[in-house]
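Final report, Chapter 2: Outcomes

The project's central promise was a pipeline that accepts a single protein chain and returns its three-dimensional structure in a standardized token representation, suitable for archiving and comparison. That pipeline is now operational. To close this chapter, we reproduce one record exactly as it appears in the project archive, with the input sequence first and the structure output second.
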Amino acid sequence: MSTQIIEAQAGNITPEMSFVAQKEGVSEEFIRDKVAQGRIVILKNNQRKDSIPTAVGEGISVKINANIGTSNERSTLEQELDKVRVIEQTGADVLMDLSTGKDIDEVRRKIIASTKLPIGTVPMYQAGKEALDEHHNIAKLSKEKLFADIEKQCRDGVDFITVHCGVTKFVIEQLERQGRVTGIVSRGGAMLACWIKATGMENPLYANYDELLDIARTYDVTLSLGDGLRPGCGADAGDRAQVAETIVLGELVKRAKKSGVQAMVEGPGHVPLNQIPSMIKTIKELTDFAPLYVLGPLVTDIAPGYDHITAAIGGTLAGMQLFLTKVLHK
């Protein structure tokens, strides 16, 4: 099964490349070359025939992602489908289903059927929740269960998946040596760190990365390499654990490209305003200039409930730095 990056590296222009080139106002050759380099990804699962191919990365417009999803505390399928309609009406480009409540499979499939927007998920959320429901112990989560959920979600049609492959035993050791004010704030990162500590084994997403690549390549699903060690407060920004994980993600980006799989990188979380330009530049350089799925950056820790404001401030500055990084590396 071919993928967008395999076709681009062969010099071919796919219908999806043509579509996004017209939408972005750039040439087809520009999109093809950037996809081949891994600097642009096209979100489009080959199982979804009517979804909107959406490009993310260098030299094109910034995309807006909206998160939805059920929880054990509140939310229903009807509410999530209402959110999908609001997302479409307000012009977001992409959505993520982060459900952790009941009937995760049904919710995901109904969301996919209800929209043409690209959809992302975090398979670890489902695998971890169901392991906890059944065993009351995250250490009981098996590699087989995790990878079965990954393939199921890809087969259902999700266009990209967040996978915290960079939360390795070595990275956790760096975190423990240094310590942090807020520890691990990523749900998926925390689950995997607890699993590693409890079992003494390596992160299955890292140890079995080639198998993960095989699944992603089959469905042309983009890997969104999650930042499980992103800082949860400004004081932790740029620390040893974050940088160690970013270096690992950079190596995984190269392996993905070599394997014919599209990959982008998530980050960086809470970052003081004055550190954002250098943080963005460092992440881009360490990850071979892969598209950056910007989480925030949140410029202050004292505005809970107003993350849309603090993230908009940080995201604007990050976008400016991404533009400058592109200009400097032409």
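Archive annotation: Strands lie at 40-43, 54-57, 65-68, 94-97, 119-121, 160-163, 222-225, 263-270, 292-298.
This record, like all others produced under the grant, will remain available to the consortium after the project formally closes.
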